[in-house]
Design brief:
8 helices; single chain; mainly alpha
Length: 164
């Protein structure tokens, strides 16, 4: 990851992680193409995260922030990518029955809206539960959000009014 891209303009690490951040305007043809590309890229990322070294580097380089950005991306074209991110997080960090390395992530969560709605903290790891609660409220049909939310809760459960 410390090497340079073929053009030498950026490191391989920056090029790789830069691909995980949605950029296209919602509803545009670019958004549909980007969402499709992201879904394919996520298939590879999910497998790479099985490696302790890569998982650690991913966390150190704010990869979970990029995952949260994907979960929060607007538009139906992102639904397959959102579901894939949820599955990757569960399979690599939460569900020991499928080989997840638990205890590495997540951090402590906050349900204090002012923390997560502060500029610069919008995609903080501690805000996942709050945002998943909002996703469930807005799109109750998204079973991936309910399953991920439940796995992030000690003891599982539905979001409370204070968390939304």
């Amino acid at each position: 990851m410390g090497g340079q891209t073929g053009s030498g303009e950026q490191s391989l690490k920056d090029a790789f992680y830069g691909q995980l951040r949605p950029r296209a305007k919602q509803g545009s043809a670019d958004a549909a193409n980007e969402a499709t590309w992201m879904r394919a890229l996520l298939a590879v990322v999910g497998k790479l995260l099985k490696s302790d070294k890569i998982r650690s580097e991913f966390l150190d380089n704010n990869g979970m922030e990029d995952f949260l950005r994907i979960l929060m991306a607007k538009g139906p074209e992102w639904e397959p990518a959102r579901a894939r991110v949820a599955r990757i997080v569960m399979d690599n960090f939460l569900d020991e029955s499928v080989g997840a390395k638990t205890g590495v992530w997540p951090p402590r969560f906050t349900t204090q809206v002012y923390v997560c709605d502060t500029e610069g903290r919008e995609f903080d790891d501690s805000c996942w539960v709050l945002y998943l609660g909002r996703i469930i409220k807005d799109r109750p049909q998204d079973t991936w959000a309910q399953e991920l939310y439940s796995m992030l809760q000690p003891g599982g459960g539905a979001p409370t009014h204070n968390e939304l």
